[in-house]
């Protein structure tokens, strides 16, 4: 093990961040607390033993034995916590990866169902339409479950962090509109975007903002009446941006 790895192991805050745990649940912090408790116990036992046992070598031996026993117990407990924390971290990472991988195929499946329901490819019967509606409802439900699972996973691991940067808000919306065009076309919905001219860049987390707008736009298209229109407005009011979907 290199010196750098040893230092990283000694960095309690870095290790707690790695496992996504608060300080009081982190194995390294608990081990440090146990070490302090062992030291206090050893000193207390030595102070008491010297008052009743005349032989200092016997006192030292007893202190060493008790300290060793406490250290072994603390190490076993710490390793158990480490295994639990590592298992929790791997579970959360697995859920996060699976959730991300499922979002795209589920969205494509929903858009394909919408296109088939519109009858633009081939005429469909009432019975087929009924089956397509069932497929659509279940694909929407699966998409919502995947989104909820991803959010819960991020909250559990304390990884719902904001990575702020400068970007053009209107570009983000335009990119989302392009992605939603197949769904809008299949639903006979027109998306109209009217941004204010010469808007400055915003300083925020584009991925989190994209997730919010994506959900709003998806709901707007899904629940609008046939041959409707979704209007998106973006303007600057004082120091804030005003965003509206209707």
From TrEMBL:
Record-linked InterPro entries: HATPase_C_sf (IPR036890), His_kinase_dom (IPR005467), HisK_dim/P_dom (IPR003661), HisK_dim/P_sf (IPR036097), Sensor_HK_Regulatory (IPR050736)
Enzyme class, UniProt record, top EC level: transferase
Record protein name field: histidine kinase
Alphabetical list of CDD domains matching this protein: HisKA (cd00082)
Species, as recorded: Candidatus Nealsonbacteria bacterium CG15_BIG_FIL_POST_REV_8_21_14_020_37_12
SUPFAM superfamilies: ATPase domain of HSP90 chaperone/DNA topoisomerase II/histidine kinase, Homodimeric domain of signal transducing histidine kinase
Keywords: Kinase, Membrane, Transferase, Transmembrane, Transmembrane helix, Two-component regulatory system
Gene3D superfamilies with a match to the protein in the record: 1.10.287.130, Histidine kinase-like ATPase, C-terminal domain
PROSITE patterns associated with the record: HIS_KIN
MF terms in GO: phosphorelay sensor kinase activity
Entry EC no(s): 2.7.13.3
Catalytic reaction list: ATP + protein L-histidine = ADP + protein N-phospho-L-histidine
Keyword presence, Kinase: yes
Residues annotated as domain Histidine kinase: 97-246
PANTHER family found in the cross-reference section: HISTIDINE KINASE 1, TWO-COMPONENT HISTIDINE KINASE
Ranges annotated as spanning the membrane: 29-49, 58-77
């Amino acid at each position: 093990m290199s010196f750098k790895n040893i230092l990283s192991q000694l960095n309690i805050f870095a290790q707690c961040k790695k496992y996504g745990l608060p300080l009081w649940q982190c194995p390294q912090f608990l081990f440090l607390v146990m070490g302090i408790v062992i030291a206090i116990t050893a000193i207390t036992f030595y102070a008491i033993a010297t008052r009743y046992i005349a032989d200092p070598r016997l006192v030292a031996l007893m202190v060493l034995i008790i300290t060793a026993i406490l250290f072994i117990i603390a190490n076993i407990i710490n390793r158990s916590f480490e295994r639990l924390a590592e298992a929790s971290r791997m579970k959360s990472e697995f859920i996060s990866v699976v959730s991300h991988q499922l979002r795209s195929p589920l969205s494509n499946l929903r858009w394909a169902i919408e296109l088939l329901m519109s009858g633009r490819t081939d005429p469909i019967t009432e019975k087929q339409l009924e089956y397509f509606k069932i497929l659509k409802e279940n694909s929407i439900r699966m998409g919502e479950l995947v989104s909820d699972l991803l959010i819960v996973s991020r909250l559990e691991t304390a990884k719902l962090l904001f990575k702020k940067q400068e970007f053009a808000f209107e570009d983000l919306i335009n990119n989302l509109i392009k992605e939603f065009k197949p769904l809008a076309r299949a639903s006979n919905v027109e998306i109209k975007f009217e941004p204010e001219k010469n808007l400055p860049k915003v300083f925020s987390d584009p991925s989190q903002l994209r997730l919010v707008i994506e959900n709003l736009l998806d709901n707007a298209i899904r629940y609008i009446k046939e041959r409707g229109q979704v209007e998106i407005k973006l303007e600057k009011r004082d120091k804030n941006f005003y965003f509206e979907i209707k």
